[in-house]
Amino acid sequence: MDVSLTLIIVMAVLFAAGVYAMLERSLTRVLIGFMLLGNATNLLLLIVMGVPGNAPFFGYSDVSDPLPQALTLTAIVITFAVTAFLLALIYRSWQLGQADTVEDDEADIALRERTDADEDVMDDEDDAGDEDATTDFVDVRTAPITVLHMKDHPSIHDDAPTDRAWGTNPAAAGPADPDSTGETGRGSDEGEGRS
To answer: I need a surface site. Which of 1, 7, 33, 59 has the fewest CB within 10 A?
Structure first.
C-alpha cells in the first residue's frame, strides 16, 4: 500500500489546528476547529482507503474498497449537522449578549477559588454520607408506577373481551355484558376440555 506522505502531513496539521481552535472560548473558533477536525477525518478515511481502484461495476479486479467511502459520506453528514447546530448556538449567543465568547459563571469562579483544604473537607463529607445513603423505595410495598384496570373505573364502558384465566366460571365472575358476543363463555368450555 502506497500512501502519499503529503496527505498524512496535511491530515496531522488539520487535526492539530482543529484541536487548538476548539480549546478557545470563542464559539466561532470552536466552529472553525470542528470543521477542521471534520476535514481531517475525511482525509484520514481517504488515507485508510489505500490505493484507488476501479468501481465495482467495472469488474472484479483492482476494485476500490467501498467501506471508507461510505464512512466518509457519513462523516460529511455528521460534520454538516453539527456545524449547523453550532451556527445556531453562535447566532443565539450573539442575539443575547452581542458576543460569542463563553464566559465564566459564578459556579466556575467558586470552583477555581477552592483550596486543597476545602477539597479535603468535601471528601470527608462525601465519605460520611455514604453510610446513611438510602433510596426512596426501600421497604416500600407499592411500585412507583400504578397500573390501572378498567374494573377500577365503573363509569367507562369497555366492550373488549376480558382477560380471564382458563377454567374460570363466567357466571361467578359477575353479570355478562349484554353487548358481548359470547366470547367469555367460550373460554370456560375450552378450559374444561384442557384440564
So the answer is: 1
Tens of pLDDT along the chain (195 residues) come to 456 888 899 999 999 999 999 998 888 999 999 999 999 999 998 888 877 777 777 667 777 778 888 899 999 999 999 999 999 988 988 888 887 777 777 887 887 777 777 777 766 665 554 555 555 655 556 555 666 666 666 676 666 666 665 555 555 555 555 555 544 444 444 444 444
The number of beta carbons lying within 10 Å of the beta carbon of residue 18 is 21
Q: Do residues 23 and 95 make contact, with C-beta atoms less than 8 angstroms apart?
A: no
pTM above the 0.70 mark? Answer: no
Residue 31 CB coordination number (10 Å)? 20
| Topology of the domain comprising 5-103 | Helix Hairpins (1.10.287)
Domain locations in the chain?
5-103, 150-190
